Recover the amino acids of this structure.
């Protein structure tokens, strides 16, 4: 297990993550991947601690992944479902969080459709002077740090499975294609990938890839390029991240049609020929098959890292819960 001291109480954003923090997460996740390959996949690390999964917005993989990660660490887990909760009776989100606090929650994993909710709850926990860690599991269009970290772990593990580390990304070309504007996954990935010398190329229609993203990384070691055509982003790319078109977040007519989007920006076998011959494709899921990526490519293990991302997710989330909870044991 990584020995570096972990001082961060909450994990809300990757914007201010230090290289040593990335490396600690990557090394710790590699140790937990080893645990998950054993016959007995459970360790007593968080025995007696309680993790509350407060998902105010629907989720399949992130919620299950955090639940499994907490259970593999022997924590007790409480799952909150908004539809059947007192939210329907007008309870505020902060009061919901305080209810879980009163039950003895040690860590809260929070997903909300509005940006800033996990920060607000973390702020309230600090104001109350309680040692509860808050983990952002996706807030609006803002960030999805555990997804950024699991993508990083998946990529670095492919390059060096034994010692995944940030420096492996130096000089790599990574294309992020699709609905960048609405994607919290893209935002978290931009922070992690530019924390080292990677070259990140964003591609998509001008309505979904605003130029202002280019300014966000000024002064960081990596570089960021913006393209409104997909081909220059794919040229010689080592990794391609495709993103779901977030129809639920689109408030205007930002796209001509899904068919036209696929024709211009969809990831297809033909387009992948532009990339490095060993290119790999990632997608955070859920996938609109045949829109952002062709269905057969998504299932082709020669190119697709999608199931590895899901598997990596459990080890990475175990690492995050372990690091946040380690100060308490
Ligand atoms: N599952 C990811 C998220 O929650 C990506 C997506 O929904 O498209 O942001």
């Amino acid at each position: 297990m990584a020995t570096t001291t972990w001082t961060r109480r909450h994990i809300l954003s990757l914007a201010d993550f230090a290289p040593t923090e990335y490396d600690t997460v990557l090394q710790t996740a590699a140790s937990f991947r080893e645990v998950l390959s054993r016959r007995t996949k459970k360790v007593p690390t968080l025995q007696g601690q309680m993790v509350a999964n407060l998902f105010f917005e629907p989720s399949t993989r992130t919620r299950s992944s955090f639940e499994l990660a907490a259970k593999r660490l022997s924590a007790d887990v409480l799952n909150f479902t908004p539809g059947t909760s007192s939210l329907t009776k007008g309870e505020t989100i902060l009061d919901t969080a305080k209810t879980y606090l009163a039950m003895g929650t040690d860590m809260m994993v929070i997903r909300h459709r509005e940006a800033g909710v996990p920060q607000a709850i973390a702020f309230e926990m600090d104001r109350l002077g309680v040692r509860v860690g808050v983990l952002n599991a996706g807030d609006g269009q803002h960030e999805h740090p555990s997804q950024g970290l699991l993508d990083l772990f998946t990529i670095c593990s492919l390059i060096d499975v034994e010692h995944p580390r940030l420096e492996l990304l130096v000089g790599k070309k990574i294309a992020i294609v699709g609905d960048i504007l609405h994607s919290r996954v893209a935002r978290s990935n931009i922070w992690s990938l530019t924390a080292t010398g990677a070259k990140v190329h964003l591609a998509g229609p001008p309505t979904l890839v605003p130029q202002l993203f280019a300014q966000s990384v000024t002064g960081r070691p990596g570089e960021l390029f913006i393209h409104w055509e997909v081909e220059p982003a794919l040229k010689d790319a080592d990794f391609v991240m495709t993103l779901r078109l977030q129809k639920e977040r689109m408030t205007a007519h930002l796209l001509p049609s899904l068919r036209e989007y696929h024709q211009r920006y969809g990831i297809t076998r033909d387009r992948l020929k532009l990339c490095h011959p060993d290119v790999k494709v990632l997608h955070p899921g859920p996938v609109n098959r045949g829109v952002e990526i062709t269905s057969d490519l998504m299932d082709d293990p020669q190119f697709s890292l999608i199931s590895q991302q899901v598997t990596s997710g459990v080890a990475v989330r175990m690492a995050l819960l372990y690091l946040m909870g380690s100060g308490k044991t």
Summary: The first helix runs from residue 19 to 36. The radius of gyration is 19 Å. The first strand starts at residue 50 and ends at 55.
